[in-house]
User: What shape does this take?
Amino acid sequence: MDASIIGPISFDATATAPMYLQIAEHIAAKIRGRLLPAGTKLPPERQLAALFGVSRTTAINAYRQLEELGLVRTKVGSGTYVNEAPAEAGPQPVPWHQTMVPHLPSPLAGILRDLVSVDIAGDTISLGTGLPDPALYPTAAFTSLFERHFARLNNADLGHIPTEGYLPLRTLLAAGHSRSGIPATAANIAVVSGSMQGLYLLAKIFINPGDYVIVEAPTYLGALPIFRTSGARVLTLPAPGPLQLDLLEDYLVRYRPKLLYIMPTFQNPSGRVLPLAERRALLALAARHRLIIIEDDPYGDLHYDQQPPPPLKALDPYGGVVYLRTFSKALFPGLRVGWVVAPEPVIDRLAMEKQYIDLHSANLSQWLLSKFLGEGLLSGHVERLRAEYKKRRDIAAAALQRHCSSLSFAPPSGGFYFWCRLARSSSAGTRLLLHEAARQGVAFVPGEAFYPDSGGEQEFRLCFATNSEPVLQEGIKRLGKALSHLDKIAHADSRPLIHASQPII
Ligand SMILES: Cc1ncc(COP(=O)(O)O)c(C=O)c1O
Assistant: This one.
């Protein structure tokens, strides 16, 4: 295959379009101009990558784009060919990617693109996403609530409702919090479309570009793009391990950060629980500096050993804690119901900001939930989840010990995740393991996705909640195979196992 049929190449250094689109456009122009006639075999991805000096993933994405345009087709095991009937030269399509505001590259995007270039087995078991098991969704209870109550639903409840949320639901949530040590009224509660939206809105109302925010490292990967796109400068507090209050104080004095984003209970991804004494010490320091704390607590109810200490919000001596919750883990994520508990001025401003993007969260979910909570169905359901997820946690721990003895990890006492570390650090890290694991038919999230800067190369997150026991065991067995395969390669060949992947954009 003569790769020169593609050249000569010249790139516009000022172009904002991603590299793969520029390459696709270059080849598309040649196909449309019949310089690459129908049936022409295009260079293999590796050659294309070498020709343009880009990663193989970028080359794959360029071909995928051409396929989407209908200009080429891929024959499995043979290669990529110019289509027999290239699109007639009609009106030029709108170059959408070039018209849109450039999007900030994130390490996660790099990892995801890396993943799509892996040959994933058809029956891959995902231990990656942090989802509850759909088999445990309380669908029977919701069906029954719907059947019993829908006919009596006041039609006014199907129109617009206040942006802060459906009042009966907010009242029930406030009463629940008040009983468990967080005094609140409905005026302290805003219902949002998932806690992700809550976090987005909080970032919007508190952060000006250039402000400092503090996050844990590792932290929830969904929070990082929110802070990045808000223009915040991100400082990190190491987690797990004891909270480094000296470092925090240093940040507070030196940078006057706007807020701290923290998950004190069953942290995602590390599973860490901040002990009571550390919670109190953190709050005392935060109170002295009037630091705003955003406490994200999606997993607090899902404890499998002893009950965790109370949330920071319940211990808050200065009213600076804004508390975020969601029903995505204990019920199901498709409800899209999360909520913020905060002083009224914060709720008022948050509701105003929410109106610009979302007049209010979906009424039907909120109405059904208010029936579910009103009939006292939540606690029994959460009890059942605890029993089931505890079994899965124990099975996963035993399977990891048996099949993946070269990993180090601490079984979490709640939440959804094992945070694992490669015992023998390798220059290739967990990204290479991810490739091998994908070949064996199992997936996880590599550690780098959870760090705002560098870090996490030797770590990864496994979710034990989503899959039934046999599937979970099989997934971990496959992970064990991937680890032993990499061990064998590492012994056979001491050269670096993988080249650092090139940034794609
Ligand atoms: C720590 C944390 N915050 C927020 C979310 C987002 O939840 P929601 O579905 O409510 O947007 C998740 C989900 O994984 C999470 O783990």
